[in-house]
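Course exercise 7: structure representation. Students receive a sequence record and must write out the corresponding structure in token form. The form below is the worked example handed out in class, using F5/8 type C domain-containing protein (297 residues). Read each field label carefully; the graders check that inputs and outputs are placed in the correct fields and that the protein name is recorded exactly as given.

STUDENT ID: A-19
EXERCISE PROTEIN: F5/8 type C domain-containing protein
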Amino acid sequence: MSCKKDDTLVDLPDGSISFDLPASSDVIEMPVSILADATTTLEIKAALTGNAANEDHHVTFAIDTTKISGYTAKYGPALVLPTSAYLFYKSIVTLPAGATKSEAAILNIGQQTKLTEYTTYVLPVVIKSVDGKIEGPATNRVIYYVFKTGKPLFVNRTGWTIAGFSSQNSATNAAGMLIDANNLATYWASSIQQSMPQWVSINFGKEVSFISLTYYLPTILVYPTQGGYPTSMRIETSMDGTTWVNKGVFAGNIVNKMQTIDVGQTTARYLRFTVLASAKYSNLYDAIFISGIMLTP
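STUDENT ANSWER:
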């Protein structure tokens, strides 16, 4: 009579599978720059307490966003890292027979430029199951991967609104196009029936600190032959939208369809961008075409 092999896994002791990390801390802080997108690969391993396993076991890691409350209660305000910024490339790993440590799970971090400046983001990682069992060997420990962003390449435009403008050629080319997410295709065009100066004011919705302003010409505008670009501008700032501080008058100096204007260290809630003079559009009109305005902190 032949013998049938028992393929049933022997259960590991309760709480015997944890993170292969020192028990002294539940926080791993990772440096992150939001100046450029780059993939950062994190490796996460499980560890078995006691003797080595007699057979292979499978450990599943997971992101548990409900655990963010545990972090904020202990360490202070934070946001969950958005799903667009990470990918759990490999969440199920093997703890081989004869070993006390698993192979590495792979967690990729990216899309940093979409994160908000000066913000703490957290990814709470848990061991979801061992050999498909949610309860039992898996520890209830939570590891918080913490990402603190710093100075951005440009000030985030979320929350910006148009406070006023002198004119616009149509709803398609409205002043609001200056602060949308596209600095190339969409644009503000002043009315071809108006003369200079033409202006637009922006409400940041909060106090913003910056040292320079960059404006862009739209891709559709043939520069310089078609005209329609500023040759002289005044930049003003305000804390209340009523009293304005003149930051200077600047000559046009467009390179690669953009110009950066240094205004010195400035803190404001409002910005007014006034075109005092322009190259005539199609040699006929005083209209200007500007695709976007950005601020450098």
